[in-house]
Amino acid sequence: MTNNIPHAKALRTRQTPAEQHLWYHLRAHRFLGLKFKRQKPIGPYIVDFVCMGHALVIELDGSQHGDQIAYDRERDAWLASQGFTVLRFWNHEALDQTDSVLERIRQFVETAPSPPTPLPQAGEGSQAHPSLSTHTMMLTWLALGDSYTIGEGVPAEGRWPVQLAAALRGEGVPLADPEILATTGWTTDELSAAMDAAGYAPPWDLVSLLIGVNNQYRGRSVDDYRDEFRRLLQRAIALAGARAGCVLVLSIPDWGVTPFARDSGRDTARIAAELDAYNATARAETLRFGAHWVDITPISRAHPALLADDALHPAAAQYTLWMEAALPTARAMLAKR
Length: 337
What we know:
alpha/beta; Endonuclease, Chain A; Rossmann fold; five-stranded parallel β-sheet; four-stranded mixed β-sheet; 14 helices; 9 strands; 45% helix
C-alpha cells in the first residue's frame, strides 16, 4: 500500500485559504468538543478533515472538482464501505457561509445514528468534555516546550498542561486539552525548527512556553539564550493572534537538586546559578513584551523528592504543584477572552 503520510504532511503546510479558514473552527476540540484531524490518510486516500469518533469526513471542493466527478464518487464509495459519511462543501461556502457549513456539520453529529465502527488509525477518537454543553465552542491552547511540557516519565494525564486544562474545565472554562509541541532534549533552536515544520497557524486562545533547560545543560551562554528565547516569545505572541496577554511563560525548574545531577558529578551550585540567570533573562523578556510569567523554580527546589522513576524529571505530583501555581494566572488570562 502507498505510504501517504509524507504527502499528507506536505499538504498540511500548503492548505488552501478555505481549508485554513474551516480548520480554525474545527481544530483543537473547538467545535462541539470534537476531535478533528486535517489532511488525514485513510486507506489509499487523504481526506481534508475527519472526526473518527463520528466516522465523519469533510471535503472542501474547488473548481477543479468539476473535472473529477467520477474519481470523487469512487472515493466516496470506498469511504462509505469503511463506515464513513462524507460531507462535501464548496470552497466559497467554507469562506463565505461558514455558519451554514458548521450548522450542517452540527446537525449531522447530533442527529445521525451511532456510526458503525470505521477502520481508524489506533488512538483516534472523539474527546468531548462532559462537564460542558455540546454546543460550547472550546478555547484552544498550544503548549510549546521540552521534557517538562511533554511530561517525560509521567502518563499524559499527569502533564502540567493537561492537569491545568482539566482544572479550568472543572471551573467551567471551556478550554480544550492542549496541543503539545514538545520533545525531551529540545533546546530553543530545536523547538523553533519544530515549529517551522508543524506549520501552526494563528490565532490560538492560549499559548504557553517553557524552554531553556537543555541550553543550560549543553553549556550555552545566557546571551545566546536571550536572543533565541526572544524570537520564540515573539513567535508565541504571533500564534496567539498578536496578543501578548494570551501567552503564558513558565520558568525553568532546577534540575540541579535531583539525584541525577548529584550522581553526574556536575556542580549543582553552578547549575542553580546558571538557571537563575536564564530565568532572569526569560522573565525580563516576557514582561517586556507584555506576556505572563509564572515562577515554578522554587517549587522544584522545595520538592526534590517528587520525581519520576528516572530521578531527574518531575513526577505528576510535582506537576500538580506547578499547575496550582499557574492556575490563577491562566484563569485571569482566559477570563478576558
